[in-house]
Write a structure and sequence with these properties.
441 residues, mainly alpha, 19 helices, 75% helix
Length: 441
């Protein structure tokens, strides 16, 4: 089974990134050899040197493909040179499997795990196709023990996985791709739209990126369950958060936990005083922003999340004295949602200047009396957005119950649900297949 899945995963990556699948093989070989070198090192210094050798190799490859043009462009801006971008094709998913590679080597160094007994087991982990191109970021200490157990998927795994795949398809192919058609109009030419239209586009993208990415995560987790592997939860209703700290515990959980364990804690975490705690938060989010893309808008996005996290932590003594009731929860939720939504503008807009223009339109050219007109012109978009917001706030126990009902339902019910979803995809599909947003990272 291991050889078959590895071959399929490499073929899958070949179809998405061409000959870059050879680089994935080479990376896995280097990691595996170094990991055994770390395990057999006679001194801690030797092990540490080998660990950093692996990290430097992985980050150098990532840096070349993802950041070479960014740094060269900024250097040429400083020296007033004539910059010609390098002809570099970014391999799909390189950021995801690079982080998995780093976490594996660090965990071997810290003796959290032993190196895999064979290279085939390691490349199985690194190239596992459901999570290869857009996550979740799989941790070796969580995944490899499952590989060793080699358990057969249960009935709950199979039909629970099928349910997650169906939910993921609805999120991505029905909701995200449909509302994206309007959002793209706003972000592609922000100067042409009013404040109300712009606000709706920003709210639309806020929900689009959630449905797009969590939809992929659901499908990846579901596919893994069909094979008997658990990847863990990656999204937990993030827009229910009442503060930024809680938001990052719910959004892209595999990345935020990776940044916590392999960046924030090694920097010192909260163990070196108040100022260092805030600085470590800021630096961690700055790295998270840069991980998302080689552009100043991503760095700004990460920096603002870092500042927001620091402000929240600094305000806790005051916040703890505020009564905990529905009114204060709503106010804090609204503040968090607005902050996150406005920062998504920098994530999506074509440039930093467009981001500023979009936010300016909302606050300068906004007229409440235009809202009924917008709802009249785009009723389906508004209904879909409203339904999405309502479902996002459904308690997790209700969602789990729906999944369990699907699992135990007769095959005819499962078939009916599947056919309904297929019909919805056909009904709302766009003219062109829209790639997953996180494929670019």
């Amino acid at each position: 089974m291991i050889i078959y899945v590895v071959c399929f995963s490499l073929y899958f990556y070949y179809k998405s990134s061409g000959l870059f699948f050879l680089m994935l093989i080479a990376t896995s070989m280097v990691d595996w050899i170094i990991s055994w070198g770390i395990a057999k090192a006679k001194t801690r210094r030797q092990a540490l040197t080998l660990m950093w050798l692996s990290i430097i190799i992985s980050l150098s490859i990532l840096g070349y493909f993802k950041y070479a043009n960014f740094f060269l462009w900024n250097w040429n801006q400083m020296v007033q040179g004539n910059f010609q971008p390098l002809d570099i094709i970014l391999p799909v998913g390189i950021s995801f499997y690079t982080f998995q590679s780093i976490s594996y080597v660090v965990d071997v160094y810290k003796k959290r795990i032993r190196p895999t007994g064979s290279w085939m087991e390691y490349i199985f982990f690194l190239s596992f196709f459901p999570a290869l191109v857009a996550g979740p970021i799989v941790r070796a200490d969580y995944f490899l023990p499952q590989l060793k157990k080699n358990e057969e998927p249960t009935r709950n795994d199979i039909y629970g996985g099928l349910w997650l795949i169906i939910i993921g398809i609805v999120k991505k192919a029905v909701i995200a791709d449909y509302i994206a058609q309007y959002n793209d109009l706003i972000f592609n030419d922000p100067s042409m739209y009013t404040g109300v239209q712009t606000l709706m586009g920003v709210l639309g993208y806020t929900m689009q990126i959630y449905c797009d990415f969590s939809g992929y995560s659901d499908m990846a987790i579901g596919l893994a369950l069909l094979m008997g592997f658990k990847l863990g939860i990656n999204f937990n209703s993030p827009y229910q958060s009442c503060n930024l700290t809680d938001f990052w515990r719910r959004w892209h959980i595999s990345l935020s936990s990776w940044l916590r364990d392999y960046v924030y804690i090694p920097l010192g975490g909260n163990r070196k005083g108040v100022f260092r705690t805030y600085l470590n938060n800021f630096l961690t989010m700055l790295i998270g922003g840069l991980w998302h893309g080689a552009a100043w808008k991503f760095i700004f996005w990460g920096a603002m999340h870092g500042i927001g996290l620091a402000i929240h932590k600094a305000s806790r003594p005051v916040l703890d004295r505020i009564p905990d009731n529905w009114a204060t929860k709503f106010i804090f939720w609204l503040m968090t949602f607005i902050y996150v939504s406005l920062l998504w503008v920098f994530f999506r807009a074509a440039s930093f200047e467009d981001s500023v223009l979009i936010i300016r339109n909302i606050f300068v050219d906004f007229y409440w009396n235009q809202i009924p007109q917008f709802m009249t012109i785009r009723p389906e978009w508004c209904v879909m957005m409203l339904a999405l917001i309502i479902f996002h706030f459904v308690p997790q126990r209700v969602a789990d119950r729906c999944q369990q009902i699907f699992v135990i339902s007769p095959w005819i019910v499962k078939l009916a649900v599947f056919l309904i979803v297929v019909q919805l995809v056909i009904e709302y599909m766009s003219e062109e297949v829209a790639p997953f947003i996180y494929f670019q990272f």
